[in-house]
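Lab notebook page, bench 4
Experiment: in silico fold of construct C2
Operator: M.H.
Input chain length: 761 residues
Purpose: comparison with the prior construct
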Amino acid sequence: MRLFGYVFVMLLLLCLYQCQNYKKVSLLKKEVPIVDSANAPVISADAAIHLMQVEPGFEVKLVAAEPLISAPVAMSFDPSGRMWVVEMMGYMPDVSGKGEDNPNGKIVILEDTNGDGIADTRKVFLDSLILPRAICLIGGGILVAESPNLWYYEIHADHPGKRTLVDNQYAVDGNVEHQPNGLFRAMDNWIYNAKSSKRYKKTGNHWRIERTHFRGQWGISQDNYGRLYYNDNSSNLIGDYFSPGYGASNPNQTVVAGYEERIVRDNRVYPIRPNTGVNRGYQPGVLDDSLRLRNMTAACGPVIYRGDLFGNQYDFNAFVAEPAANLIKRDVLKDEGMVIKGEAAYSGKEFIASMDERFRPVSLYNGLDGALYIVDMYRGIIQHKTYVTPYLKAEIEKRKLTGPLGCGRIYKVVPVGKKAVSVKFAKDPQQLVALLGHPNGAVRDMAQQILIDAGGKKAVPYLRQALRNSSNPLQVIQAMWTLEGLSALETQEVLTLLKSKEWPLRMQALHVLPAVISGSSYPYYLIALKDMVIKSDALSAIYIAYALNAIKPYQEETWESLYLSLLKKYPANAYLASAMISSAAYKEEYYKDKFFALWPDSNMAINKQLNVLVNKIRSARKHRDPLALAKAFPKGAALFASSCQTCHGADGNGIKSLAPPLNKSEWVTGNKDKLISIVLYGLTGPVKVNGHLYESPEISTDMPGIAHSEEISDEDVAQVLSFIRGGWENSAGKINVGDVEKIRSGLKGRQKAFTIAELEK
């Protein structure tokens, strides 16, 4: 113990030296430093709290700081309330990103052993990882995302046991900013991800991998009904109007109404310090007159607050991290019939804003104590090397933002005067089932997960009893999904919920139906769905349309007739049309002709959507062989996969909310000098492609350039442009290295991105 104590003290002194060698602030006296906004001194965690402007009535408390934690990016609570934290130490060691492939990442366990609210012990569970990015505790083990692989480790007394490869293609494309993450264990017992179209489920020792909607960029969360929320770097909040398991069964259908919707369109931010250290701070309109960021440029880590500590006015609120602006935004959400809408809680201020430039909130979480937890990477550099402009590089060097690298903090936000107390989870199944009705959603989720991971049937009688608790619909919902996770949910129980007067219960019963339907039970579900269609329940109509896909393998004729009934009742409903098309994979042309014959109205929702989709499918048949192209331009294919595909799509047709199409784009197949200029220096503002004006929020209106990347040569640029000019249905000529060299030379010294107006000159 003495040796451990000596080592710990030495580590503390070393870290304090590293993390404070730019300042004169005493940790012991908790002095509040006077910060010159032109500089970016490293400030102690205690002192940094005093530099935060927090919504009145709330306070920020320290939970963990260096040397106990370094460069945290994600975390998860276990049933004991301990924090399992991902340390991404390798991210951007310097302004050029050299050394990112060093195996210095870790998964650590932090614990508060004396009950004072501050973690005081650290265990290293895994080390020698290269840029780990996400974890998920499940089934007595832990999923760990270490690109390109997704691993599952058994846990034995806080030590890793047997390792199983779950997916060797978890994150094969994109750079660090554009790779899958999240590993969010949702209410429906599937694990979802941001920046990914895969979901995972553990059944015994078997892992299922299914296609789902492509969602977001960094971070993912859910509301009390299991609907998912996420965002991208320039978008406040994006989410799904409907349950996550639906709408992804047709691989041809890349746009599904009601999914990947802009929940909050206001991207304005209100920092309390200048933010010149952003990638495009030189560009007019990015910063205001006081040099503060105007709009989100690094939004990430959203969470829907589901705690019981903040008060009713914070129910169904979203909190979004913006590390480039050193703040956390609060949004207020509302259910409006079939859709969810939200708006920023305030104008002119934020929930939390800091004067400390190194305050980098990257992930937010609901705590088992009802508090809001903040993972602060506490770094100078947050922009990845691929996109660093000369302007930002100069800012980093001028204000010494490169180091130190060994800092990191975890905070929690609590109401002033309220004590946040974590719930204790007993092993008794009856007590765990009771916690499924707890007012804190994080507690309900944890109780559900403990019961499923235990795998026993002792809880089943108590769960069936909870299903009848009409006074607490949230307990009914979580009890239903717990029974589903235990493979114990019965047909009659689902049928009863389908008849409930409470819409959320009917919603959940329709969501769970595909997971429980079978050859013996489908006739009963079919009768129930027919009855719901007859009753003209508009709220249920979309869910019925999705649930009908589970009927199709048993009675396709009835499936089709019920769809016709729904389409007749709701001909203008775009969500219903998308739901129908989701069930019509590979028969889109058949239904296009059939529906148009029945309803010869090209403006009818189903006809409009099918017409667009069929044209896209026919277009895809003309695509060139991607393997032949990759063979001709191997560097171009690799660069496209790492830097272009994540926004423009593997099929070149663009991705909703991110980027416009490259396929058949006049900017790709037209003047090669313009195309080279765009790729080298980027493009900002709306852009017209094939007669359609793409602007925010349909896409992000900022495309970063790669001219300043030390790792991307002119040969690479020539190859990637040749790759896309000859890909899909494009038939433009090859671009040579000399073409790129000429443009780069002619634009020497340029920093800012192009606008369409400039290019058209």
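Observations: Confidence is low (pLDDT under 50) at residues 1-18, 20-34. The longest strand covers residues 206-215.
Next step: discuss at group meeting.
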